[in-house]
Design a protein that fits this description.
With 360 residues, this protein is mainly α. The chain is 72% helix and 0% strand.
Length: 360
């Protein structure tokens, strides 16, 4: 009895195509993604390794330095006598810092598994972490006033946090007005917001400098905060307007029926709904202002007003090509505020970016 070989139906994938889709394609995509992640992480890993290197060049130790030290981090807070301080207190500080890192990791794990762990153990881990940090901080407090790095760090936070809050305030009010109100010039205003984004910021440097000079705001934090806070409204307002357009107006109209004013509807209904997107705007604005160099170098003149971006540049300018490992350590410490803010706003970021991708 002859048996015919079954032919695949039209539109049904053949055997080779099935093998490609089911086995080869997923593996190939994983390899490409792993290679991309490795290429992205390589500069960061190199900088971290260089910060612990005992040499002075970025290429002296490679990815695995033969001799590691914390002296590059100590020199951020100690001036010329860093060698003596490290000789006297380096071992105790290194051990306390290592203990603080280990206890911090244990505390994170305990927090994630807090339902399975006893409260007394969690309190003990937290107390140990605080004690280790206190020991490390106590050893460092005696010499904190000998360098300018903490001054630069404080200056950056003094500028970036108010500027980011100002950006959020101006952005949410402008986006709400364009989304909810109908007024003369509304379409023209939206068009101008798009057109302004077409021109690079460097074209306005002369005008900004002259404006601040007329207002007597040069070499002041106020002038820099105003420029930062108002310079990134356009893109953020468009982003937030699309988000507000997706929120039903009936929510606010029901509040009006209950006797709420326009301001109450905005603060109690609209504002909480856009809070995740505002967290995204705040974080992106903070990162942009924190690493900005050009405007800060033009507006700020006095050395005591320098931000981290300016300070790190002058930190290596007098020792060009001889203290790059110290510069690497300073870069890692300077990135700490961004990491802390990102971790604090992580829940809002995921929610805001997800909803913005779906609704924007």
């Amino acid at each position: 009895m002859n048996q015919r070989k079954a032919r695949p139906m039209r539109g049904q994938p053949r055997g080779g195509r099935l093998v490609w889709r089911g086995t080869i394609a997923p593996q190939a995509s994983r390899i490409v993604l792993i290679a991309a992640c490795a290429a992205s992480l390589f500069p960061a890993v190199w900088v971290v390794a260089a910060s612990f290197s005992a040499g002075a060049s970025l290429y002296s130790g490679g990815l695995l330095p033969a001799k590691t030290t914390l002296r590059n981090y100590v020199q951020l807070f100690v001036r010329a006598d860093a060698a003596g301080w490290y000789r006297d207190h380096g071992r105790a500080f290194s051990l306390s810092a290592l203990a603080a890192v280990i206890l911090a990791g244990a505390l994170v794990l305990a927090w994630r598994r807090r339902q399975r762990m006893r409260p007394a153990l969690r309190r003990g881990l937290l107390g140990g972490l605080v004690a280790a940090l206190c020991v490390a901080g106590r050893l460092l407090l005696a010499t904190l006033d000998r360098t300018n790095f903490l001054l630069w760090l404080g200056n950056s936070l003094t500028v970036c946090i108010p500027a980011s809050l100002l950006t959020v305030l101006l952005t949410v009010t402008m986006a709400y007005a364009f989304s909810r109100f109908r007024f003369v010039g509304r379409r023209f205003g939206l068009l101008m917001l798009i057109l302004i984004q077409m021109f690079p910021a460097i074209m306005s440097i002369v005008a900004i400098f002259r404006l601040l000079q007329i207002l007597h705001l040069l070499d002041t934090y106020t002038g820099l905060i105003l420029i930062y806070g108002g310079g990134s409204i356009g893109f953020n307002a468009w982003l937030l307007k699309g988000y507000l357009d997706s929120i039903p107006r009936e929510l606010e109209e029901s509040a009006y029926i209950d006797g709420a004013s326009r301001w109450q509807a905005f603060t109690r209904i609209a504002f909480p709904l856009v809070a995740p997107m505002l967290a995204v705007v705040f974080l992106f604005s903070f990162i942009s202002y924190y690493q900005e160099f050009l405007l800060a170098s033009i507006i700020l003149f006095r050395p005591e007003l320098r931000t981290v971006a300016l300070g790190l540049r002058f930190y290596i300018s007098s020792k060009y090509a001889e203290n790059w490992t110290g510069f690497a350590a300073a870069s890692i410490v300077a990135s700490t505020p961004i990491v802390v803010i990102f971790y604090a706003l992580q829940r809002f970021l995921v929610e805001g970016l997800t909803k913005g991708a779906l609704k924007g």
